[in-house]
Amino acid sequence: MTPLAGTMEPEKNRLLDAVARRVAGHSLEGPYYTDRAFFDLDIAAIFTRQWLFVAVDAEVPEPGDCTTVEIGPYSVIVLRDDEGGLRAFHNVCRHRGARLLDEGRGSVGNLVCGYHKWTYGTDGALRHAPAQPPDFDRDCFALKTVHVRSVGGLVFVCLADEPPADFPEVAARVEPYLAPHELRRAKVAARCDLVENGNWKLVMENNRECYHCDGHPELLRTFFPTYGYTRDSVPANLRQAHERYLRADTEMRATYERLGLPYALIEELHERTTGFRIQRDALDLAGESFTPDGTAACRRLLGDLPTPRLGHLALHLQPNSWFHVLGDHAVTFSVLPLAPDKTLLRTTWLVHPEAVEGEDYDPGTLTKVWTATNEQDARLVARAQQGVANPAYEPGPYAPTEYQVEAFCTWYLARLREELRP
Known about the structure:
Pfam families: Rieske (PF00355), Ring_hydroxyl_A (PF00848). The protein is α+β, with helices and mostly antiparallel strands.
């Protein structure tokens, strides 16, 4: 049963009325970010229906390796089975419902319930249940499975009985962009969990625009501030940066063509169930990485790439993730709702599997830009949450450069309509 299943008809009508009132090109009304009913609807319509990015292959590289993830009221185990396959299960014992694994990462031979010692194999089959009657059928009590799939080394799960049918097509279009970086072979260099004091949609909306990027001095050393502008709309104060971008973009396109790297923009953010955007793009200065001077943060490059000067591969997937994949490392971002006004942002940095900490890379240098940027964004999201909770708040118009925020809201509202009026 989803959290929305017991919702009374008047409450559903209230939510539908709010969806119908939304003015295109304007921000959402306050209750979308503050109301418990909307939060429960988001869990039901989004987080139990869609493919969600939750981990990377590098977190579960060997048989028995596992990690857990909290998705609203659900807890999911992602693990590598004895045959090397990827599995996902609900983190619930089939006996009396005790949680099998605590939060975090680890390695197991079997999954043993700490309550009554029911024991499951890495394939989810019940192996041992003490003191059961002779006619007890263990085959009836395997762990409940969750759909799981790796896309170029990025691990997604879906709680729905029938996942979105378009995900395999999206995966097939995205994987050629990711494949040269060999993320499945990478290793985790760092991971950071940041709880932001704002609704999950504010976290996603904030990431989808650079209208506020003057608040990210570390990021803007290499990330061009003209993101989201068209050629004819670049303001006077950004024209010099735009000229640098055009020169760097021309050079990068020649490099991508020479190396056979796909780079063209694919942007289908709200036209399909699994909205996504992917593109290779130039970086400023040395153009190699997110560092103060743009030079590589790791000496060992991902995959067999011959040069670090590749700009960055930017991937965005509705509803909860974005990624930056560079020549020397990759950064993944996963957004998970905790409460109407609390959100977990999990950031993971990946490097070449043989890169040595302190020799090939310094963790502080590797993580500095996005750690600072995440913390700055968290403060902005908290300010936004305070504002939308104020009775004086009313939706305002998006600027043209915020078109991806509008696309996110359009996609999101379509999912709510599907849930409320199946």
